[in-house]
Amino acid sequence: MIKKVTALAILAASVTSLSANAETYHPGPYVGGSIGHTSVDWDVLDDLESEGASVDDNDVGYKLFAGYRINNFFAIEGFYADLGKATAAGSGLVGGNTAHASADVDASTFGLSALAIYPINDKVEVFGKVGFNAWDADANASLRIPANGINESASDSDDGTDPMYGVGAAYNIDNLSLRVEFERYELDDANVDMASAGISYKF
Length: 203
Description:
CATH class: Mainly Beta
Number of strands: 9
């Protein structure tokens, strides 16, 4: 009898705890923004660096997002992200004359992701996300050979749609939520990783 009562008490406490958490995470829309560090993983930059070029594949990026919390465990989120810029520069001899070359590429993206959320308690939750990103990249290159008076430049752009995914954690204070997350955006044959911190407001 005592064992049955104890078991019922534990079950009741568990249900009460779950109910309390359920009351904390109300469905509804939210908006927010984040800022953080971006890093580009691209074979082209690796090849340039191995040939002696100075490569900087790290930058600052930011993201604006809006979403809808469906229930305790799921949300849908749309976003726009500036993924920063990567640069490369180097010098060498062309026909016996010193030549200076430089290039940069910057990317931005927008898309939609689905979030799977696990509330740890009434304040803290962790989440994973997967979705797609429609990206656009702009590249610029220049070549200078002062001895020959050569100063040439060129630009190009590319775009596409690829997967994105990430993980994160959030701390909720009333209608505000503080979040940290790590995301990977695939851009054709390159990847951009973004580690960020941000805030959102739930209506």
